[in-house]
């Protein structure tokens, strides 16, 4: 069983206490050794009988009177020289002990600070844009340094993922804009040059391309608001069943055109949300079903409340279902249910990304999966709001 790594404050306090204790230990034992050693050296300078009288007094033995009398005459000068030498010698030993303890403390401080240098290098690499930097299995340092290392490693991983996703999204935006812009430019230039006649059908085709661009720009704006946590304007008490009826009634022509039969089981689902954004999310799911699941011929919408009090709206279809590789991850921007990137179905590829962003903006989640008897099941879950 591994001991819990100590905190920086604990390690610092223990290091300081250890250095102070070591200094006092050296000073205490040095004092008696120095005093005994210096005294013996100074006694060699006294007459033998006076020196023996001093030793007898220290041992608690009464010396001869003549020796004691001679010692008393020499004592003032002896004590003065002894005190001076003791002060200098003891001071030197204390200075030596302080230097030794400082050296030990410096080595310990370097050992404590060594992992911080690695973290500083990693932070500088992140500042310079090297998001691929990784600390791997970071070891060493106190508990705070360990947590900081894990945080920097996670930050580097997130930034690297964001950079790759931004690069992909930029290329995807360019791809999505290139085709309609090329069509618009070619047709308009042809009309100006007189190559193409100005016909109503031709203008309607160009207008359709412009409308597709408008949808793409609006979808990108929605995702931008979601990234800035500004997607939701005002929450209000809302019944998801009422909102679902409104959306399904508005989408009836679209369902009829796609040949999709609608089934409903709308139970009361009170919650506190931005109703406009929830209608946008539900409409996006209806559009998604009409584009990619119309072969199933049936779309079922359900609303209700889970056991934990979460309100939900669920769409079930009989289409081909969702690919296995994307059911357990977040939907990437410009992801489409079809394998190709063709715009034949008229979508921007942002639908499910927007639905997921709206769900997360309400502290909820988007659940996706495939039904056992075929088709996809997509559900928006809104947790109960604290009172």
Automatic annotation (TrEMBL):
Its main location: membrane. The chain crosses the membrane at residues 12-35, 90-109. Keywords: ATP-binding, Kinase, Membrane, Nucleotide-binding, Phosphoprotein, Transferase, Transmembrane, Transmembrane helix, Two-component regulatory system. Pfam families: HAMP, HATPase_c, HisKA. The keyword Ion transport does not apply. Its EC number is 2.7.13.3. It is an enzyme of class 2 (transferase). One of its GO terms (molecular function) is ATP binding. It is found in: Membrane. This is histidine kinase. It comes from Mesorhizobium retamae.
